[in-house]
Automatic annotation (TrEMBL):
Keyword Transferase: yes
Protein's organism: Cryobacterium melibiosiphilum
CDD domains registered for this protein in UniProt: Trans_IPPS_HT (cd00685)
Keywords in alphabetical order: Magnesium, Metal-binding, Transferase
Alphabetized GO MF terms: metal ion binding; prenyltransferase activity
Similarity annotation: Belongs to the FPP/GGPP synthase family.
Entries under Gene3D superfamilies matching the protein: Farnesyl Diphosphate Synthase
Cofactor(s) recorded in Swiss-Prot or TrEMBL: Mg(2+)
Top-level taxonomy: Bacteria, Bacillati, Actinomycetota, Actinomycetes, Micrococcales
Official protein name in the record: Polyprenyl synthetase family protein
Any one biological process term the GO annotation gives: isoprenoid biosynthetic process
InterPro entries linked to this entry: Isoprenoid_synthase_dom_sf (IPR008949), Polyprenyl_synt (IPR000092), Polyprenyl_synt_CS (IPR033749)
C-alpha cells in the first residue's frame, strides 16, 4: 500500500467516524432528520480525495519522513473533503444540475423523498430548500472536524501557533471560494455587457478563485501551515499550487464539454447546458465567425439541448482551435508549477509525490 493510498483510507475512516458521532446529535432531535445524515454519507463516499492528498503532502513537505501523530493532518484533510461536499451540494443547486458522481444530486434526492412520501407543496421547492440546509450543515461540520484536528496538536506554543495559522488559511479559503462562486454565476449573466477583449481574463479570474485556490493551493498551504512551515515553504507551495490548480480546472472544463459520462459522473456536454462561461468558451468565441458566434451564444445555456445539438457545439469548439489552446495552457501551467519544485525548500520525498499528483490531476482522460 502506498503512502497516498494509506492516507485516503485514513481520511475515509475519519469521515465515517465523524459522521457516526454526529448522527445521534441530529437524530435525537427527530427521526425525520435521518436523511440529512444518510445523504451526507452518500456525498462523502467516493471521489478522488485530491484535496486531502494535497493537504497531506503539504504537511509532509515540511515534516519530511518524520513519523508521528497524523491525527491533526488527517482531520484537516477530512475537513477539506467535507467542505468540498458542501460546495458540491450548493453548486448543483446553483447550476440546476441533476447528477453528481454518477448519481442524483442532493436536491434531486430530496425531491425524490418528497414525491415518495406524498407531501404537500412542490418537490422542487422542498428539494432545493433541503439541499441548501444540507450544504450548510456540511459547512459547519467541516469546521468542527478541523477544530478536532487542531485540538490533537501538542500543547507547546510553536505547534499551537501553527494550528492558528492553518485555521486562518482555512478561513481565507472559504472566503475565496465563495467569492469565486459568485463571480461564476455573475459571468454567466454579465458576459453580454463586457468587452470581448476582457472575457478571457474574466474567465481565468473565475477559475482561479472558484477552483484553483481551494482545490490545490489552499489544501497544500493548510497542510504545510499545520506542520509549522516557514514563510518560504508556504510561499513555495503557493507558487506551485496556483498554476497547477488552474491547469486542474482547465482540464475539468474540457471534461465538462467532452467528457465521458461514465468517467465524469455527469452527462456529456453538461457545462454547455449550464451555460458555463469557461476559458474554453472564451477562446472558442475569439475565432468563430460572427454567424457562428451568434449560433453558439444562442445555444449555450439552453437546458433543453439534446445530444445532436451538443455534438454541434462540440464540433464548433473543436474547429475553433480552442481545445488545442487550452491543452497548451495546461501544459504551460504544469511546467510553471513543476519548475517551482526544482529548488523549493521542501522535503525531497514530498516533492516527488507532488510531481506525481501534478500528473494525476491534469492528465485525466476524456
Amino acid at each position: 500500500m502506498t503512502e497516498s493510498t494509506h492516507l485516503v483510507d485514513l481520511v475515509d475512516s475519519r469521515v465515517d467516524e465523524f459522521l457516526i458521532t454526529r448522527e445521534p446529535i441530529v437524530t435525537l432531535i427527530s427521526r425525520d432528520l435521518t436523511p440529512l445524515v444518510d445523504f451526507s454519507r452518500q456525498f462523502l463516499s467516493g471521489g478522488k480525495r485530491f484535496r486531502a492528498l494535497f493537504c497531506y503532502w503539504g504537511w509532509q513537505s515540511v515534516r519530511g519522513d518524520e513519523s508521528g501523530d497524523l491525527r491533526p493532518v488527517v482531520s484537516a484533510a477530512a475537513a477539506l473533503e467535507i467542505f468540498h461536499a458542501a460546495a458540491l451540494v450548493h453548486d448543483d443547486i446553483i447550476d440546476n444540475s441533476d447528477t453528481r458522481r454518477g448519481g442524483a444530486s442532493a436536491h434531486k434526492l430530496f425531491e425524490g423523498l418528497h414525491r415518495s412520501e406524498g407531501w404537500a407543496g412542490t418537490a422542487d421547492d422542498f428539494g432545493r430548500a433541503s439541499a441548501i440546509l444540507l450544504g450548510d450543515l456540511l459547512l459547519g461540520w467541516s469546521d468542527e472536524l478541523l477544530d478536532e484536528g487542531l485540538e490533537a496538536l501538542p500543547a507547546d506554543a510553536p505547534t499551537r501557533a501553527a494550528g492558528r495559522r492553518a485555521r486562518l488559511e482555512f478561513n481565507h479559503m472559504r472566503t475565496e471560494v465563495t467569492a469565486g462562486q459568485y463571480l461564476d454565476i455573475l459571468e454567466e449573466r454579465a458576459w453580454i455587457v463586457q468587452a470581448e477583449s476582457e472575457l478571457l481574463e474574466r474567465a481565468l479570474r473565475v477559475i482561479t478563485f472558484k477552483s484553483a485556490k481551494y482545490s490545490v493551493q489552499a489544501p497544500l498551504v493548510i497542510g504545510a501551515a499545520l506542520a509549522g512551515g516557514t514563510a518560504e515553504q508556504l510561499d513555495a507551495l503557493r507558487a506551485f499550487g496556483l498554476p497547477l490548480g488552474i491547469a486542474y480546472q482547465l482540464r475539468d472544463d474540457l471534461l465538462g464539454v467532452f467528457g465521458d459520462a461514465s468517467v465524469t459522473g455527469k452527462p456529456s456536454g453538461d457545462d454547455l447546458r449550464e451555460g458555463k462561461r469557461t476559458v474554453l468558451v472564451a477562446l472558442a468565441r475569439e475565432t468563430l465567425t460572427a454567424g457562428e458566434r451568434s449560433l453558439f451564444d444562442g445555444e449555450l445555456g439552453d437546458v433543453t439541448l439534446d445530444a445532436a445539438r451538443i455534438v454541434a457545439l462540440q464540433e464548433l469548439i473543436l474547429a475553433s482551435g480552442a481545445v488545442d489552446r487550452v491543452e497548451a495552457m495546461i501544459a504551460d501551467r504544469v511546467a510553471e508549477a513543476e519548475a517551482v519544485l526544482a529548488d523549493a525548500p521542501l522535503a525531497e520525498g514530498a516533492r516527488d509525490q507532488l510531481r506525481t499528483l501534478s500528473a494525476r490531476v491534469t492528465r485525466r482522460a476524456f
